[in-house]
Specification:
The protein is built from 8 helices and 25 strands. The strands form 5 sheets. Strands 7, 8, 9, 11, 12, 13, 15 and 16 form an 8-stranded antiparallel beta sheet that branches. Strands 2-3-1-4-5-6 form a 6-stranded mixed beta sheet, with helices on both faces. α4 runs parallel beside α5 and α5 crosses α6.
């Protein structure tokens, strides 16, 4: 498959939408799908039929994404809804995340692999607590690009000062979190203003429509600038007459580029060796890049098993002591002294929660020490001790190998999403100043 380009037809953008309740996320997503001609005729007919049954004159485009019966009955989004659509310029995978505060954890799921987050704001209400929470989660997860979509501009008479004030306030908050790329777009998802087509009601706005920005924002990163990280998923030893000495290590390249001849370190053992062959789709190749799934063969017969990490370039130092910023996802609180399982790439080890250093107040961004535990949706800092050493990168350097999950050992449920290192504090360091209001228009 060809490599992606910034604006080529083969490029793929993963993005997530977030916002407070009734900000119009589902309507926006429905508008994107409808106006970009990504809705099948039978889907549109079903939406028109349900809308007519409710006494609505026009189709309720929110029904295109609110797929659960409970969502349609309540008029809210509960689960993360993934949608695929494409335009001639780019392909998209969209994660429509819930707005209710009790479902903030779902945004962590939806935004964990996103390259862009669309944060919606109701022009009548401006920036609210949930807006700040979503911006903090996007910053915590190192989402590279953020779009502020100021929705329902039709309900404030398309007033430029309303948009400028909201954009300035949000950008200042995002800057304090270290978010460097924020683009603000005034829209009306219901009327279609500046979603796919430019608005005739806001001639004071000279920026791109939302879809135009989604089609042109740079996506992906150059694998060559990241060190190669290859978590071993499976050891292949067929021991057949045709391949009596074959020994390969199968998995997905998490980051970087791996070449035949590269010197690598196997972690956590620390043994060094050389890549002698790379097999992809049953054929040998000289090079592999993230996120390809390949089988790697090495020069030396080293004891390697599932969960080990093959690293090229500067290798992380294995450790049993892990400090991390975490987002707690489970109704059961996380407390100091809890025994959990820690899953990092393909490796799962036992761990102890030694300390909950502080909880982060989303409103003030202050660190609240002395917390007895972390409740659902809380963001905080923890210290863990693992039974076996882990080769963790800092999350600020590598989203794939710097992240992990804490799991309940009793029933296997996911408790917490973790980002190794001082992730949240780091993103706040050296934050740029927010632009003036007039810079947005």
């Amino acid at each position: 498959m060809s490599t992606t380009t910034e604006t080529g037809a083969t490029s793929l953008l993963r993005f997530a939408t977030a916002g407070s309740v009734d900000d119009g996320k589902s309507t926006l997503v429905g508008r994107l799908l409808h106006d970009s001609k990504s809705v099948l005729a039978d889907q549109l007919e079903a939406v028109e039929r349900v809308s007519l049954g409710r006494g609505q004159e026009a189709p309720d485009l929110a029904l295109l994404t609110d797929g659960l019966r409970a969502e349609r009955e309540q008029g809210i989004t509960i689960d993360v809804a993934y949608r695929y659509f494409a335009t001639p310029r780019r392909r998209f995978i969209l994660a429509d995340t819930p707005g209710h505060v009790q479902y903030t954890r779902n945004m962590v799921t939806g935004a964990s692999t996103a390259e862009l987050a669309v944060v919606l704001v109701d022009a009548r209400n401006g920036v609210v607590e949930q807006t700040r929470r979503h911006a903090a989660v996007a910053a915590l997860l190192r989402v590279p690009h953020v779009v502020l979509a100021v929705n329902k501009m039709d309900l404030v008479d398309y007033a430029e000062p309303v948009f400028a004030a909201i954009a300035a306030e949000f950008t200042a908050y995002a800057a304090s979190l270290g978010v460097k790329d924020v683009v603000a777009v005034p829209i009306s998802a219901l009327a279609g203003d500046n979603v796919v087509e430019p608005s005739a009601h806001m001639d004071w706005y000279g920026g791109p429509t939302l879809l135009e920005h989604l089609e042109t924002v740079p996506v992906g990163s150059d694998p060559g600038v990241e060190p190669a990280r290859f978590p071993v998923q499976y050891v292949i030893r067929p021991q057949t007459e045709e391949h009596p000495d074959y020994r390969g290590y199968a998995g997905q390249l998490a980051s970087g580029v791996l070449r035949v001849g590269d010197a690598v370190t196997v972690l956590p053992s620390g043994h060094t060796t050389t890549v002698t062959a790379i097999d992809a789709l049953g054929k040998e190749t000289d090079i592999a890049w993230a996120p390809q799934s390949v089988t790697v063969r090495l020069a030396d017969d080293i004891d390697i098993s599932r969960g080990d990490l093959i690293a090229a370039g500067p290798a992380p130092v294995p450790t049993k002591d892990v400090e991390a910023t975490v987002s707690h996802l489970n109704e059961r609180p996380l407390r100091a002294g809890d025994r959990v399982l820690l899953k990092h790439t393909t490796r799962t080890v036992r761990a102890l929660v030694k300390e909950i250093s502080y909880r982060i107040d989303i409103d003030s961004l202050e660190q609240r020490s002395g917390a007895e535990g972390l409740n659902v949706n809380d963001i905080g800092h923890v210290v863990l001790r693992t039974a076996e050493p882990l080769a963790l990168d800092s999350y600020s350097d590598n989203r794939r190998t710097g992240s992990f999950l804490l799991i309940d050992p009793a029933d296997g449920t996911t408790l917490t999403a973790g980002m190794a290192g001082e992730a949240f504090d780091t993103v706040r360091t050296g934050a740029p100043e927010a632009p003036d209001e007039e810079d947005w228009v």
